[in-house]
């Protein structure tokens, strides 16, 4: 009996930790090569399987802090996905209660930072998602309102007209799922790639 149980354990261990993952990865690489490699894009915004040419993933947020870039929403992990100098490499949120002083302090700090970077904007004009962190801390999207409110700063720094910036944002806005579920959302990386292209034309 013990021998049978041990044999079953070994077989299941091999199946679940070696055979199944390898088979699943092989099938995914064959059927969905782009998606299974992380949905990476190059500096032109084109899908790429070459990690040396990739500047980011359409599915993972990044910390864009240059004034001519569209800025992402707050991240409690500081988009810490590969920097081994950080104390930890993680994703996720702190799930602080609304009454937690640490949450109030973090929001107030982010609020003041945004107002300093965007002097044309008042506190009342700031969309909620620019001050609230996503569940993963790695959200690649922001709301359409959160993108549009940054146009004055980006225009001033990049010398791109507000009209052209609005067009870029609209072109990289994803509609509601099936037209009714969720909200319109803007891919920050895609917009910033388009901004760099537009700046080169200036």
TrEMBL record:
Transmembrane segments: none annotated. Keywords: ATP-binding, Cell membrane, Ion transport, Membrane, Nucleotide-binding, Potassium, Potassium transport, Transmembrane, Transmembrane helix, Transport. It holds the Pfam family KdpC. It is found in: Cell membrane. Its main location: membrane. GO terms for molecular function: ATP binding; P-type potassium transmembrane transporter activity. It comes from the Bacteria. It is a single-pass membrane protein. InterPro entries: KdpC. GO terms for cellular component: plasma membrane. The system is composed of three essential subunits: KdpA, KdpB and KdpC. Part of the high-affinity ATP-driven potassium transport (or Kdp) system, which catalyzes the hydrolysis of ATP coupled with the electrogenic transport of potassium into the cytoplasm. This subunit acts as a catalytic chaperone that increases the ATP-binding affinity of the ATP-hydrolyzing subunit KdpB by the formation of a transient KdpB/KdpC/ATP ternary complex. Belongs to the KdpC family. This is Potassium-transporting ATPase KdpC subunit. The gene is kdpC.
């Amino acid at each position: 009996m013990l021998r049978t149980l041990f044999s079953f354990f070994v077989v299941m261990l091999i199946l679940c930790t070696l055979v199944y993952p390898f088979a699943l990865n092989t099938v995914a690489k064959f059927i969905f090569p782009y998606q299974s490699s992380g949905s990476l894009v190059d500096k032109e915004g084109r899908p790429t399987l070459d990690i040396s040419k990739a500047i980011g993933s359409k599915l993972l947020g990044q910390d864009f802090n240059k004034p001519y870039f569209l800025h992402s929403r707050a991240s409690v992990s500081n988009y810490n996905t590969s920097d081994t100098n950080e104390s930890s490499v993680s994703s996720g949120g702190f799930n602080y209660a609304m009454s937690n002083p640490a949450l109030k302090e973090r929001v107030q700090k982010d609020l003041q930072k945004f107002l300093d970077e965007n002097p044309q904007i008042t506190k009342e004009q700031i969309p909620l998602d620019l001050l609230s962190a996503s569940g993963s801390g790695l959200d690649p999207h922001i709301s359409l309102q959160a993108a549009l409110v940054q146009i004055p700063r980006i225009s001033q720094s990049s010398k791109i007209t507000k009209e052209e910036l609005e067009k870029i944002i609209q072109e990289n806005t994803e509609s509601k799922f099936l037209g009714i579920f969720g909200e319109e959302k803007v891919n920050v990386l895609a917009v910033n790639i388009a901004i760099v292209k537009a700046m080169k034309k200036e």
